[in-house]
Each structure stands twice: as C-alpha cells, then as structure tokens.
Amino acid sequence: MDKTSRRQALRLGAALGGSLGAAAQEPRSLGRPLSAYGERSRFVKPVRATRVTKTPEAGSSSTPLADTFGIVTPSALHYERHHAGVPDIDPATHRLTIHGLVERPLVLTMDEIRRLPSASRIHFLECGGNSGSEWAAENGPTVQRSYGLASCSDWTGVPLRLLLDEVGLKPGAAWLIAEGADACRMQRSVPIVKALDDAMLAYGQNGEPLRPEQGFPLRLLTPGWEGNVQVKWLRRLDVTDQPYMTRDETSKYSDLMPDGKARIFTLPLEAKSVVTFPSGGHTLAGAGLYEITGLAWSGRGRVERVEVTLDGGRTWVDAKLDEPRLRLAFTRFRMPWRWDGRAAAIASRCTDESGYVQPTRAELIEARGTNSGYHFNGIKLWKISPDGSVTNVHA
Amino acid sequence: MDKTSRRQALRLGAALGGSLGAAAQEPRSLGRPLSAYGERSRFVKPVRATRVTKTPEAGSSSTPLADTFGIVTPSALHYERHHAGVPDIDPATHRLTIHGLVERPLVLTMDEIRRLPSASRIHFLECGGNSGSEWAAENGPTVQRSYGLASCSDWTGVPLRLLLDEVGLKPGAAWLIAEGADACRMQRSVPIVKALDDAMLAYGQNGEPLRPEQGFPLRLLTPGWEGNVQVKWLRRLDVTDQPYMTRDETSKYSDLMPDGKARIFTLPLEAKSVVTFPSGGHTLAGAGLYEITGLAWSGRGRVERVEVTLDGGRTWVDAKLDEPRLRLAFTRFRMPWRWDGRAAAIASRCTDESGYVQPTRAELIEARGTNSGYHFNGIKLWKISPDGSVTNVHA
Fold first, then answer.
1. Which candidate, A380, A377, A389, A395, places its Cα nearest to that of A126?
2. Which parts of chain B fold into alpha helices (H)?
3. Nearest residue to B226 (alpha-carbon basis) of B131, B150, B153, B127
4. Are A36 and B61 inside 8 Å of each other by CB?
5. Which of B242, B263, B284 is the last residue of a domain?
C-alpha cells in the first residue's frame, strides 16, 4: 500500500480530529522510585473471571482475552483449572519419579532437572472444555466467559524424550501415566509416541519459574493437546502398556456422541479462532475506524490463514497474521474496519497447516450432536447492533 | 544424535543417581482456590537489583538474567532506568501531540491510538550504559549487576509511520524529538528515517498494558537502538530539521574517544552476548553435567551464530540457538557441558546477520579507549575455579 492509499484507507484526521489545545498538562513532580518487582498501573483492571462452585478448590478461571495483546498471555492472567486447589510446593523437596516399564527407574530433584539440556518454546494451552457453552442455546456473554480457558506462554524445560532414553523403555511400553502432586493426585494417560515426540517437562513460564497455578515447580507439556493432559505439579510418570482409564479420560473430557457411544482420548485440539475485538460486552463509540483483532490456534501445527466475515458468513476476507507464526502457538490476526454504523455480524475462520478449516457450529452439531460440552471449535459469531453494542449469537 | 550417543553424552544415571526411596510425600490437603490475578510462588525470590543514588528517582535497576528463562523477560523484572521517577499517569487524560514540520498537527487520546492498525513484535531493550563497568578494572560481580540493563518483551502498538503519513511531513523534516511526561520531560532526537522504518508507539507489553516503569500508557520504540531513545510516557513528537542536542545525546550516552572528540548519536547497539549460567556468583556443586546457557542480541538484525569457549578464548564451539531467532530480539543459546572439576574460563561470541563478530574487550579498548562508560559489547569471560566458584574476570 503506498502512502496515499494508506492515508485514504485510514482517514485518521476525520476519525480523530484532535486539536492542539487539548494537550495534556501532566504534573511535573518527581515520580515514584525504582522497584524490586514491578506491578501493573492502578488504572489497569482486567482480572481472571472465576466460575464459582460449591468447592472453590475445584473450578476454573478464564483469561480476559479482549484485554490482552500479542500472543503471550501474562502469567498472572493465564487461565486456571484446578481439581483440588493449588498446592504450595517447596521445590527443594519436590521429586519426579519415573518408573514402570523402564530399565532404570529414576527419582529426580528439581536441581537435577535444571541441570539437563533444555529448550524454550511458545505454546498455547486450552482446556478441553473451553467454549463449551457454545454447544448450548444460552452461551457466555463475553469472549472471556466463553473462550477464556485458552492462554499462551513461552515454556522452558527438558524434552521428555531425553529422560525416557535415559531410563530405557522396556518392550510393551505404550502409555505413560502422568500424576500431579495436588491433593487428588490428578492422573492422565499419554500415548508414549507423544512423550517421545515433543512433550516437555516444563519448569519455566514467560521467563520465570512456573506460576503456582500452572504447576510450580514442574508440569508436563504435551503441546497442542487439551489442557487437562498438561499435568501440573508433576510428581510421577508411570510407563505402562495401557492407559489407566482415569476419571478425566472417561467420564470427563470425552465426547458422548448422538448414538450413545463416546469418543475418548480425543487429545489434539482442532483448529480454532475467535474475534476478541469487537466481542460480547463491547460497545462501539459510533461509526468510524476500528481494528478487528483476535486469536487463532491449532493443535495440528501452524495457523496458515484466518478469514474474517462482517456479514455473518456470506463473504470472507483474509486478515493479516502477525509474525512469527509458530507451531502450536497463538497467532494474532488483525484487520482495519471502518464501521458504517449499521448492524453487522463478525466472525473469524481459521485454516491450519494440515488444510483443516474451522467448521461452523451447525456442521459441528451435525457431526457430533450436543450431548457433550467438550472440544467445541466452531466459528464464533458476534452481532454488532446499530447502537454499537456487541452480543454473543449463534447465527 | 541417535539415542545411544545421546545417552552416552548425558550419562544421566551417573550424574543423577536418585533412588526410588527418595520420592517426595507431598501433603494431600486441598490447595488454595482460584485467584483473580496470579503471583509468584513464595519460594521464588529473584528481584531487580537497584543502584542506589542520592536521588532515588534517578537511577537504574537490573534484570536478574541468571534467573530468567527463554527470551521473554517477565515485565515485573524488566530493567529500569529513570531520570525523574515513574509518573502515575491516568490514560484517560494522557495525550500525544504530533507537531512541528507537519501539514496537519494532531493531538491523540489513548482511546484513539488503540483504534488504529497495530502490530506486536518481540524486541530487546538495552541501556546504552549496560555492562559499562566492563570498561573498568573493577567490574560487576554478577551477570545481573554487570549485564542486567537488558531485557526483552513482546511489544504491541501502532507503527509510527502510519501517523507520520497522516500528519504529512513538510519539506526539511529530518528529525523527530520525542518527549516524555516524566517530571524532567526527557527528550531524545530520532532521525526521521528510523521513525519511518520500524519505530512503534507501544502501549502493550507481554500481553498487557505497558508497566508504569516501562512508560505506561505509551512509549516510543526504536527497535535495536539504545534504551534511552525508547522514550517512555510519550507525550510529544516534534518534527524538526535538526536534533535538539539534549543532555542525553551530548554529555550522556555519547562516547568520548582517546583523541578528546566524542562519538554522538551512536544509536544502533552492536552485536553482544553473555553467558548467564554459569556466571559470577554461581557455585557449581562439583564435577558433572551442566547446561551452559546465555543470551545474544544485535541492534543490526538477527543473531546468526553464538560460539562458546571453555578455555578463555583459545578454542570455540557452536552453541545451539533456540528458535525462533527474531530480528532485534534476544536469542537464547545453550550447550551441554560436563565439567571435569578443573579451572575453566567460559565466554560466548556472537555473530549477527550483518556478519559483524563480537570483539574482545582488548580490541574494543584499542579502538575506543576507556574514557567512556557506554556501548560496551566485548566478549565476557567468567572464571570457574576448581572449588566451583564463578567470578567475573577480564582475561
């Protein structure tokens, strides 16, 4: 775009129209001094939204996706999903045990783990139940309530394969049971092929040790798979010939189909995207220039394309994708939009590197019914009313 | 590396040797419930190190580089350098004025800026005075004290070029004076060519609004250039035909050469790297396997190569570089190392995409003398003693 056409596209003067007389007169007194560990401005308010349950230690809280920028979620706002609360673990006494179908069982201290060859990678995490309310007629009013069980961090840790090579897998080793040190000893079964591929024992998140809510001091990362398999407060890996069939892989996080049978171990998350601005609860301050933005991700690899519709899905245009587009990470998309003040219906549609295209909600329900609250990845529509209000609609 | 050679390289069993009897018995009581805005574990202690001055509002604090992971610095630990303290700015009343040699002067509110087309990019920031103590005979004991005025964030904001196109540059426009809203109204002169290239008006950092210490609600980013030019609490851009020749671009942040003349406007930072583990103040717990790691960056583009020496610079081997390697961003390097318990001298050497190779300290002093405390980018040596202690040495 050359300078002239860019200016024509934005017409900032008309949209903004400030005058020099409005310049701020900030105070000139000295500000506060240096600090050891910084905090947000008192004018910045977004927090995680908590789903209250009868047992506050078992619940979830969601990331304010409409208030975050870029692809890295602030650790303090990373979504939570706990089954027995957040344990307070001293890393000096924490141990990881690797046993089962292995030649040389190991117990590792955190100091020992920190001495091993490591890597850092940016990956999204998403709860298998994220946007589960979209299956229902009544859905979450905001993008935080409906889509906020998804976040993205720069994780640091040890490739799990290194340690599995070290302990030596015995013949028949096919699964690995990961167990957390929370009070319920949460367990999930992971196919050994994933453990030998890109799984990681993560101790770092966004440059510092894992936050307690994210598994401090150690969590299992199985990139691109549903969040529940990223076992937090990791204390044990039991190598087995079959899965344990735990609660969270049978009655939970499975998909009950219309014929009464259930899909289980549907672990990789399918391609998904959502517009975060404008989204439910926003009010546009009149016609004019805005930036539509949102997030896309896929458990199958890189996001290749995100299209945006302004007319409820009749026509689509390509959004601009921020670089770098990383495998199994959030990708931020953006599109300038000059709102004419009339009703509109905005949505995004993601295509990943496997060629998979995000389906409509109707297609998803046609294929899977509505028995299950998990693994919803349909196209998400937001309705803009002429008064500027934005609401969550299905069609 | 195949499985066998990897195992031979690591010999984890010998290095670790845990027994199953040592497995932790973590308590099984319920943990704490969900939280609105997360905090670190009480077992995680690293903080910024503050240089105390007579005026606490004018000083710096440094990032604990030996305690950070990956390439993104936690915002709470991003280095600080203030000249009049951290102002407490209400974004609702903050304004940015663009005036001078422009056709259509503008005053913008933060709401207006947030509606413009934006982008997110990961960039390092480094104070022009970082590692200045390395010019002297007495240097900082730790990597935090000597190299901690460097950090890296995911920044979000508006390309400055969009707004300069909008206001329309008049003939003769060659510089842009950026002014902060801190009490001293800190000013720096920026060549217009940089403003039209990759400069950004940043309002986001690591997924949330800028931290107050980093310029909330708005800062100028001139990626790859010395930190002082990334004017914080940005309130004014004055387009001019020449620089203001402010204090911070004449008596400060300039390089007094041996012949008594000074290099000024030495804005792009040259390629640099430093080993963060092991580094000054660490004590190795005996011979065995460790991971050498550190950070490399260049104000000229991408880091292409980092070599590590274990013998004080006689021989060098290539370290592994984390992906993605981004332009004008930290690059993390790593190398497994089996310490034999004998004295060693460890350093890293960075080559950037321009082909520039990080010089030795002696070469730097030969070229520039020691009159100035700015822009040191020499190779940094850490000495390992047989007792495992690590100290900062020049040769």
1. A377
2. 3-10, 12-16, 110-114, 143-147, 160-167, 192-195, 361-368
3. B127
4. yes
5. B263
With an 8 Å Cβ cutoff, are B106 and A6 in contact? no
Q: Tokens 């609250």 label which residue?
A: A373
Examine the pLDDT at A281 and tell me if it is beyond 60: yes
Mean pLDDT of chain B: 93
Query: Would you give the DSSP letter of residue A13?
Result: H
CA–CA distances in Å: residue B290 to residues B83, B319, B337, B344, B355: 40, 14, 5, 14, 30
Among B27-31, B75-79, B134-138, the range with the most confident prediction by mean pLDDT is B75-79
Report the distance separating Cα B152 and Cα B325, nearest Å: 13
Query: B118 CB near a chain A CB, below 8 Å?
Result: yes
Compute the distance between CA of residue A176 and CA of residue B392 in angstroms, rounded to an integer: 44
* Total number of domains in chain A: 2
Is there a domain that residue A356 lies in? yes
**Would residue B184 count as lying in a domain?**
yes
Of A226, A254, A282, which one is at a domain's C-terminal end? A254
Considering the entire predicted model, what is its pTM? 0.94
| Domain boundaries, position A311 | 272-393
CB A149 within 8 A of CB A161: no
Residue from the list B30, B72, B120 with its beta carbon closest to the beta carbon of A69: B120
Task: Kindly state whether residues A234 and A101 are assigned to the same domain.
Answer: yes
pLDDT (0 to 100) of residue B25: 63
Categorize the per-residue pLDDT at A24 as very low, low, confident or very high, splitting at 50, 70 and 90: low
Q: In CATH, what number is assigned to the domain containing residue A329?
A: 2.60.40.650
Helix axes A3-10, B160-167, angle to 10 degrees: 90
Can you give the pLDDT at residue A7? 42
* Shared-domain flag, residues A302 and A382: yes
CA distance A32 to A39: 13
SS3 A277: strand
- Interface probe, candidates A1, A2, A8, A26, chain B, greatest B C-beta count within 10 A: A26
Burial of A121 (0-12, 13-18, 19+ CB in 10 A): buried
Q: In the 8-state DSSP scheme, what is residue B268? A: B
Q: Which residues contact B307 (CB under 8 A, 6 or more apart)?
A: B316, B317, B318, B319, B348, B349, B351
> In angstroms, rounded to a whole number, what is the distance separating the alpha carbons of residues B362 and A339?
61
Q: What CATH number corresponds to the domain at position B239? A: 3.90.420.10
| pLDDT greater than 90 at residue A53 | no
Q: Give A 134-153 residues with CB within 8 A of chain B.
A: none
Size of interface A-B (CB pairs under 8 A): 375
- Judged against a pLDDT cut of 50, whether residue B290 lies above it is answered with yes
Contact A36 B24 (CB under 8 A): no
Cα(A344)–Cα(B271) distance, rounded to whole angstroms?
50
Q: How far is A364 from chain B (nearest CA, A)?
A: 31
* Cα angle, residue B391 at apex, residues B386 and B392 outer, rounded to 5°: 145
Is the CB of A18 less than 8 angstroms away from the CB of B61?
no
Tens digit of pLDDT for each residue in A54-94? Answer: 888 999 999 999 999 999 999 999 999 999 999 999 999 99
Q: Are strands A175-180 and A187-191 parallel, antiparallel or unpaired?
A: antiparallel
- Degrees to nearest 5, angle at CA A393 with A387 and A394: 155
